[in-house]
User: Which sequence fits this backbone?
């Protein structure tokens, strides 16, 4: 959902769009790839790159990529980093985006990271993106000018929902559940955050759930 | 060669070693993987991870990964970034290493980047590693303590050769050529830098070359 609304914002702000998808051996990777294809179809984005870094699953250490670790029931009050944290994942996504952007000479990378109303992943904090912007400056050609844009990072989930609706983002095509691929579980961290966002926005989430509470 | 000597230094400085290989669709990837296996066998390193980020070849933009761009003859006086630059490559390598290190709870990442006596890649400069260390601090769990170590970054190639010989590093098992996989061309940037290093060290490179000049 965050990526979908971020895409809607990028479509509005940019002349030309290229869409990147990264599978990383997560449980729901086929469903997420389907969402990527449907959302990019919706926006008629032709330039697409679907990549695979399944070594993140080999590395493991996360309930999303290691089937031996259970995807825990949501606990939105918990202050610890949840088991769904995929170690340093967003550095991989951004590295791929930077390499691609440098070659095709694009200058902005939009990513739907969310800080506060989220699971507390360290690689979703604004500082991470500030440092990454500096890394791009020192690690690419002198003429390369790329910066990362995080348009929803300070928004609450309910504000992301409202922004999406306002922009006509195809939220019905997005997928957030960490566990299921046909009917969302309604019970994992990602479902719980999304459902609470819709509820606080006074709206009904258009995707199917096993339970909504 | 730089990686091989860096491995020799790591073996000397650390109690426990894990070795990471990354293929990225470069022309000589099978030969480099062979070198990785032979060098890790030499050091009896059991913990190994061989990964593949061949989307870097899909992205292209480099003579190493795009067969339509010729690997140019060496020009060691050139001040521009050569066509062999693989955009932002080292950020990918380090991201994989950080994810792995965070999961297996290792705290140092050794990488054989060389600044001065090299091809002038932006992601081989000390600043790049300083910023990356900061990125690790902000992008991983609070208890994770990982830092990148670049033991050969300020050395000249001849000093790297001498350091390798001093440590008994298996330089005969290393591979540097960008073009060939059986007999090194002696003509690309990487061969030229390596050959000059051996020459300035007053030693003969043990690997076979088509020409040595």
Assistant:
């Amino acid at each position: 959902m965050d990526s979908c609304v971020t895409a809607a914002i990028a479509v509005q702000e940019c002349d030309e769009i290229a869409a990147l998808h990264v599978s990383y051996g997560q449980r729901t990777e086929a469903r997420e790839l389907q969402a990527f294809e449907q959302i990019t179809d919706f926006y008629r984005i032709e330039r697409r790159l679907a990549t695979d870094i399944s070594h993140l699953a080999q590395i493991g250490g996360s309930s999303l990529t290691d089937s031996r670790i259970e995807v825990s029931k949501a606990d939105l009050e918990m202050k610890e980093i949840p088991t769904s944290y995929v170690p340093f994942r967003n550095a991989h996504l951004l590295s791929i985006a930077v390499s691609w952007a440098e070659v095709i000479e694009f200058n902005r990378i939009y990513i739907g990271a969310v800080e506060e109303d989220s699971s507390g992943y360290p690689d979703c904090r604004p500082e991470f993106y500030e440092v990454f912007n500096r890394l791009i400056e020192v690690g690419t050609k002198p003429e390369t000018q790329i910066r990362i844009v995080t348009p929803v990072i300070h928004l609450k989930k309910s504000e992301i929902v409202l922004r999406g609706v306002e922009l006509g983002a195809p939220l019905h095509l997005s997928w957030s559940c960490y566990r299921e691929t046909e009917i969302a579980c309604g019970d994992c961290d990602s479902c719980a955050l999304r459902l609470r966002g819709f509820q606080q926005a006074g709206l009904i989430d258009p995707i199917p759930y096993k339970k909504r509470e």
In short: The two ends of chain A are 18 Å apart (CA to CA).
